[in-house]
Inverse folding.
């Protein structure tokens, strides 16, 4: 993901936090997933294997969409959101979640075009 796409994505996540809809941390994300709420789950490049294992069934059942930020670690994400560190955040389906998906999809397309 390019630097400008990462910044744009981090700005949307910051806006989501200020709006009070961003779920930060595995406890809040997994608790929201139990309420049959479809989520856009975003993990950092250094996300633990146990968190990824816990997410796998939700993704396979279609209860969550998993996005991995390859160029952002938990310290960077946490500092941008105003917490110590965060390896996982989530957004419920809605306008800001659609914007995050659009940014993420554009970055994947950009990287595929560079590899051609």
């Amino acid at each position: 993901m390019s630097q400008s796409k990462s910044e744009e994505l981090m700005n949307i996540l910051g806006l989501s936090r200020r709006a009070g809809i961003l779920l930060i941390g595995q406890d809040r994300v997994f608790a929201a997933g139990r309420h049959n709420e479809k989520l856009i789950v975003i993990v950092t490049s250094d996300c633990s294997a146990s968190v990824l294992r816990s997410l796998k069934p939700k993704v396979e059942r279609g209860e969550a969409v998993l996005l991995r930020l390859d160029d952002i670690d938990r310290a960077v994400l946490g500092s941008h959101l105003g917490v110590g560190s965060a390896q996982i955040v989530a957004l419920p389906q809605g306008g800001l979640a659609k914007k995050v998906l659009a940014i993420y999809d554009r970055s994947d397309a950009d990287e595929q075009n560079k590899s051609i």
About this structure: Strands lie at 23-24, 39-44, 64-69, 88-92.
